[in-house]
Amino acid sequence: MPVYPRGRALLLYCAKNNRYFYTMQSLVIFASGTGTNADAIIQHFKSNGKARVALIVCNKAEAGVLDIARREEIPFLIVDKKTFNETLLLEQIGDYKPSLIVLAGFLWKIPQALIDVYPGRIINIHPALLPGYGGKGMYGGKVHHAVMAAGDKESGITIHYVNEVYDDGGIILQARCEVAEYDNPETLAGRIHKLEHFYYPRAIEFLLS
């Protein structure tokens, strides 16, 4: 059955009945932690009905994002280093026909095979203004500590496409915030989270439109 993107839905053709019909676009989220960005995305699209989170992929069995998946009755996969690089994962993700794969605090590098299957359809959010403070090992509090140590007057977020290099894909959106004199890494993180939760769902919606 061919699948054709159109606006916020997918236009599918059923040869048996010789007709087209629309179905909601789906998202697959990869996350490793508490899942606050995943939850922001889920709630955004629950409220407007323009897409749905069809699957959550996680590499930590105790991660808070799985509690969100259970609460929202979203299927999830727990992967280890071995299964993460197996063809079966590609097949399992493919069953959900994702319009986008969304990395939301996922700490492993994405396999080349997955990038090859979904070119230009995997996105990530980084808690700094790339190209600064990116690369392997730069995530979460480590980024905010580095920004503070450098004495930067502003920080922000970067939403970007994913390629074979950490934090190197084309930039989709950046949003900035002040680094105040009274800030510490924790208060800066709080300001960054507000940017993430506002802009990430809306950037996804824009890419699906």
Give a brief rundown of this model:
This protein has 209 residues and is of the alpha/beta class.
Can you walk through the features of this model?
The protein is α/β, with parallel strands linked by helices and 209 residues long. The protein has one domain (25-208): Rossmann fold. Helix content is 36%, strand content 28%. It is built from 7 helices and 10 strands. Strand 4 (26-31), helix 1 and strand 5 form a beta-alpha-beta unit. The chain is globular and about 60 Å long.
Structure keywords:
single chain, 36% helix, Rossmann fold, disordered N terminus, 28% strand, three-stranded antiparallel beta sheet, 10 strands, 209 residues, alpha/beta, seven-stranded mixed beta sheet
